[in-house]
């Protein structure tokens, strides 16, 4: 699981502001770079990565700085990646991508306007991401609240999928770019990592960062 050295892949930076999709405000919060760095200290990805809810590119930028080719998209236009791409409507992985890394938009603050903000929506998101990554025998890393892992529905998903590892963040995340709703790091978070090449029946690894 631990990376030796990340592959030196071509870094892709997508054009910005290419659609008329409006910028949204309160349904967006960027992930501090140390959170993605923590994942990459433990997990090596096998190829190009898709960040399908890229926001302003906070995660994508860290992934690219580690040598990964990154395809970035978002349902909204936040000035980074390809806007107007509803992840839940995507039926295939983008060209050559073998992994997905993101934080599902249903956890800490809002969701995109008009979307459900519930654990069911979160599970739908994960099921969809698992189906897409299964099609390429790929990997999936999702940032979730640590408490979410304890839920019975989460237990079903985690137990039935190719659950390879949990990377628990011992430091709490101070979210920013949330204006007056910026929180004060109340929750612990963890990366849940699925790998469709993880041997069936093998338990996931518990890691700390
Ligand atoms: C909490 S922000 C995270 C942004 C980025 N991943 C980061 O960590 O900095 C969630 C993002 O998911 C996007 N989003 C919400 N629903 C989406 C969907 N169905 N398809 C694609 N993007 C979506 C929002 O527009 C928002 O930019």
Question: What would your notes on this structure say?
Answer:
A 7-stranded mixed beta sheet has the order 2-1-3-4-6-5-7, sandwiched between helices. Helix content is 21%, strand content 16%. Helix 1 crosses helix 2. The chain is globular. The longest helix is centred in the middle third of the chain and has 16 residues, at 119-134. With 209 residues, it is an alpha/beta fold. The protein has helices spanning 33-42, 58-65, 119-134, 152-160; strands at residues 49-51, 70-72, 99-102, 139-145, 163-168, 189-195, 205-208. It has a single domain, classed as Rossmann fold (3-Layer(aba) Sandwich), CATH 3.40.50. The protein contains 4 helices and 7 strands; from the N terminus they run αβαββαβαβββ. Helix 2 (58-65) links the parallel strand 1 (49-51) and strand 2. It starts with 32 loop residues before the first helix and ends with a strand. It binds S-adenosylmethionine (SAM).
What is this structure, in a nutshell?
By secondary structure, the chain is of the alpha/beta class. 21% of the residues lie in helices and 16% in strands.
What are the main properties of this structure?
binds S-adenosylmethionine, alpha/beta
Secondary structure: elements and pairs:
Layout: H1 33-42, E1 49-51, H2 58-65, E2 70-72, E3 99-102, H3 119-134, E4 139-145, H4 152-160, E5 163-168, E6 189-195, E7 205-208
Parallel strand pairs: 1-2, 1-3, 3-4, 5-7
Antiparallel strand pairs: 4-6, 5-6
Helix pairs in contact: 1-2
Bound molecules: S-adenosylmethionine.
């Amino acid at each position: 699981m631990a990376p030796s050295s990340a592959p030196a892949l071509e870094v892709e930076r997508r054009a910005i502001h290419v659609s008329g999709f409006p910028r949204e405000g309160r349904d967006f919060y960027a992930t501090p770079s140390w959170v993605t760095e923590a994942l990459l200290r433990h997990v090596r990805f096998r190829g190009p990565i898709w960040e399908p809810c890229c926001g302003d590119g906070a995660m994508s930028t860290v992934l690219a700085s580690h040598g990964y080719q990154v395809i970035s998209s978002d349902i909204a236009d936040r000035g980074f990646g390809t806007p107007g791409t509803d992840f839940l409507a995507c039926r295939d992985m983008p060209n050559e991508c073998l992994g997905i890394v993101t934080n599902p938009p249903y956890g800490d603050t809002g969701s995109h306007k008009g979307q459900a903000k519930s654990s069911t929506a979160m599970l739908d998101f994960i099921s969809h991401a698992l189906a897409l990554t299964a099609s390429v025998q790929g990997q999936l890393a999702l940032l979730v609240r640590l408490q979410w892992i304890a839920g019975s529905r989460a237990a079903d998903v985690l137990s039935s999928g190719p659950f390879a590892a949990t990377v628990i963040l011992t430091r709490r995340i101070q979210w920013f770019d949330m204006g007056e709703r910026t929180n004060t790091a109340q929750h612990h978070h963890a990366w849940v990592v699925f790998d469709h090449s993880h041997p069936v029946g093998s338990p996931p690894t518990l890691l700390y960062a």
